[in-house]
Design a protein that fits this description.
Elements lengths: L5 H7 L6 E6 L14 H16 L3 E6 L7 H6 L4 H25 L4 E5 L8 E2 L2 H9 L3 E5 L9 H11 L4 E6 L20 E3 H7 L6 H9 L4 E5 L5 H7 L5 E4 L1
Parallel strand pairs: 1-2, 1-6, 2-5, 3-4, 3-5, 6-8, 7-9
Antiparallel strand pairs: 8-9
Helix pairs in contact: 2-4, 2-9, 6-8
The structure holds guanosine-5'-triphosphate.
């Protein structure tokens, strides 16, 4: 991680993770609404991200689009899968713009890059430019998934994290980690503090879809699954506190 200012280098010394890729689900942005974006939830997330940014951490974000459109469900309704997936990618751009606006409203400098060109709205995805933005302490938001149908935003997150050489991918969810069984259905389910990639395969646990998960494993990129709705979780995690479940090689 070259070319950061001495000021930033000093701050980064205290952080366990200096460059993160934060993956947020589109559904999480709905809050308690059935559809779209809950402004209150959006602002809560923006504040959490701002706190980590203020501490000097370099942040990239990938967000899903399920609160607006889901390609797979559209296919069940008779829509062509590829068409539906492209609509889903556009939905992620809407969410990315919402996060961008919320962060900039709080004074955090951001850049939005899209995997599908839309010059009037945002920059195209250019890896080297994204890394430069991070080094200049701008939060970089990656929109439009991978730009290809048949891939999820989890896969986009894994891919971008590897490309920008993030230290970790942080998957913000509604649950506070990976459990032996679904904690919402099984009261005896227990949480893993850490788990190996192999164990996740062996136990048939769901962390991300297989493409995303395998990309992380093969590139030795740790994943942390954590509860994004709990205040200060993100900041504590980046400092190195034990939050959520760490998946490691
Ligand atoms: P550096 O000058 O390299 O530090 O980065 P910069 O992002 O400030 O420079 P640039 O001149 O590339 O961008 C200035 C502004 O224009 C930023 O807000 C960019 O996000 C935006 N921008 C750059 N390229 C595009 C583009 O293709 N489309 C859109 N809509 N905005 C862009």
């Amino acid at each position: 991680m070259a070319s950061v200012s001495p000021w930033l280098a000093k701050r980064l010394e205290n952080m366990k993770y200096k460059r993160i890729l934060l993956k947020l689900s589109g559904e999480a942005l709905m809050g308690n609404k059935g559809f779209g974006i809950d402004q209150e939830r959006l602002m809560e997330y923006a504040k959490e991200i701002k706190a980590v940014h203020a501490a000097g951490c370099q942040i990239a974000i990938v967000i899903g689009g399920g609160n607006i459109f889901r390609g797979i469900q559209a296919e069940k309704g008779g829509m062509d899968r590829v068409h539906g997936d492209y609509m889903g990618m556009l939905a992620t751009v809407i969410n990315s713009m919402a996060i961008q606006s919320a962060l900039e409203g709080l004074g955090v400098e951001t850049r939005l890059q899209s995997a599908i060109k839309m010059e009037q709205i945002c920059e195209p995805f250019i890896r080297r430019k994204a890394v430069r933005h991070l080094e200049k302490n701008r939060v970089v938001i990656f929109g439009a998934g991978t730009g290809n149908p048949y891939f999820t935003t989890d896969t986009a997150a894994a891919l971008r994290a590897i490309e920008i050489e993030a230290n970790v991918i942080l998957k913000g969810t509604r649950v506070d980690g990976i459990y032996t069984a679904d904690p919402e259905k099984d009261k005896n389910a227990t949480k893993f503090a850490t788990i190996k990639f192999e164990e996740v395969y062996d136990k048939g646990l769901e962390v991300m879809d297989m493409t995303a998960f395998t990309l992380c494993k093969e590139n030795k990129l740790p994943i942390i699954v954590f509860d994004m709705n709990k205040k200060n979780n993100l900041s504590n995690l980046v400092k190195g506190d034990k939050v959520g479940t760490l998946v490691e090689v």
